[in-house]
């Protein structure tokens, strides 16, 4: 069954690296409230049109890993922008440039490719993780910033939230009593490929300390003095290294 799934994914243009994938059970429900980091907009959907399920606030149909090994072939991501977002094309270009300026990953307007991102309006920001095959939605509402979209694009490239790593508790303390009860699964640790890179509080994929707070108190505290988390302004150095490692950018550069 898993082999058939991998073959099916291959035929629609993605690049599966590992044919055994253990999915976790998604949590139903999409109505979410939280305090975003200062200067950033929420990435979670308050509501999704249709029957899609949101896990961890902004991830659609997740995998049980930190880096999904279903990649975009040749490190090229085709995309289309829905008509209602035409006025935000400069923001979309800026978000993609944050990634392409520091990696070998390229974004191009969709032509005849079988797999591509379809950037469309919604009631928040959300993405699948990794290349799923076919027309893959990426939701980008008016309230989302360039940094929010970059965060979602990093999910689409294959990275999960940094705070779900198995070594998370060595670096931050989760304040479980302050988390909205039905959102505690968003902080669940996931087994997965960390690409042998250190934990990164500064990652663009890391939650902020007030995400999903029930009472206005922090939901996560750094164990490092002055450790900030939840920024949505740039890729950290480790974000850059992760993406370059995941897409074998060194090898691609040598072959050019």
Could you describe the 3D structure shown?
There is one protein chain. The chain is α/β, with parallel strands linked by helices and 256 residues long. It folds into two domains: 31-161, 3-Layer(aba) Sandwich (Collagenase (Catalytic Domain)), CATH 3.40.390.10; 163-222, no CATH class. The protein has helices at 2-11, 89-100, 146-157, 237-246, 249-255, and strands spanning 15-16, 54-55, 59-60, 70-71, 76-81, 106-109, 116-120, 125-128, 135-140, 172-174, 220-222. The strands form three sheets. Strands 2-3-8-9-7-5-6 form a seven-stranded mixed β-sheet, with helices on one face. It has a two-stranded antiparallel ribbon with strand order 1-4. The protein has a two-stranded antiparallel sheet with strand order 10-11. Helix 2 crosses helix 3. The longest helix has 12 residues, at 89-100. The radius of gyration is 17 Å and the shape is globular. Mean pLDDT is 79; it is low at 1-11, 17-42 and 45-56. Zn(2+) binds at residues 151, 155, 161. Its EC number is 3.4.24.-. It holds the Pfam family Astacin. InterPro entries: Astacin-like_dom, MetalloPept_cat_dom_sf, Peptidase_M12A, Peptidase_Metallo. GO terms for molecular function: metalloendopeptidase activity; zinc ion binding.
